[in-house]
Specification:
Blueprint lengths: L3 E4 L3 E5 L5 H8 L14 H18 L3 E6 L4 E13 L2 E10 L8 H15 L5 E7 L3 H9 L3 E10 L2 E11 L3
Antiparallel strand pairs: 1-2, 2-3, 3-4, 4-5, 6-8, 7-8
């Protein structure tokens, strides 16, 4: 069992491990769930995603964590903190991605709010953000429910496509 980082009413967030590969595939290889990334990942891309999180745990002591439904002990998504490039700086981001069957049930908001609290109380961060593609209204709504406000925009080039993104932010003092 991987290290549990935090708990909410319905979820616990724990570090990902190699055994989570198939659970990640359920999310990252779903065309509809991955629409903001312009399509599903290959096995190799899922492996790279997982390895990136494991490296992040070593480098920063945080990353995207497995979101596990307490009721079933099943991984239904991922949510956590990552360092992301934004324009010419690195920013602390709250990211989230869940299996489609668990959308619109409040899990992303619940997990994102717990990550915000963790960032401010444990990491003593001054600011957190969520970087969200302009077409991803559902994730934008999660950021708003997490108390964030639209700060700025930037076009990222990913998978050969220019993708406008919004950065929603929240300061520790807000």
């Amino acid at each position: 069992m991987s290290k549990i980082i935090l708990e909410t009413d319905r979820l616990y967030l724990r570090e990902l491990c190699q055994e989570d590969f198939l659970s990640l595939c359920r999310i990252l290889q779903d065309e509809q769930a991955m629409y903001a990334y312009e399509g599903a990942f290959t096995d190799q891309e899922v492996r790279q995603w997982l390895d990136c999180q494991l490296m992040s745990y070593k480098k920063y002591n945080f990353g995207l964590w497995a979101a596990v439904l307490k009721q079933t002990d099943r991984m239904i998504g991922q949510c956590g903190l990552t360092m992301q490039k934004w324009k010419e700086m690195e920013v602390l981001e709250i990211g989230y991605l869940f299996e489609r069957e668990h959308w619109h049930k409040g899990y992303a908001t619940e997990a994102a709010q717990a990550c915000k609290k963790y960032a401010f109380e444990v990491l003593k961060a001054e600011e957190v953000c969520s970087i969200i593609r302009d077409t991803n209204t559902a994730s934008q709504n999660v950021a708003l429910r997490n108390g964030m406000k639209l700060q700025d925009t930037w076009t990222k080039h990913y998978r050969g496509i220019d993708m406008p993104h919004f950065r929603f932010t929240l300061q520790r003092s807000e």
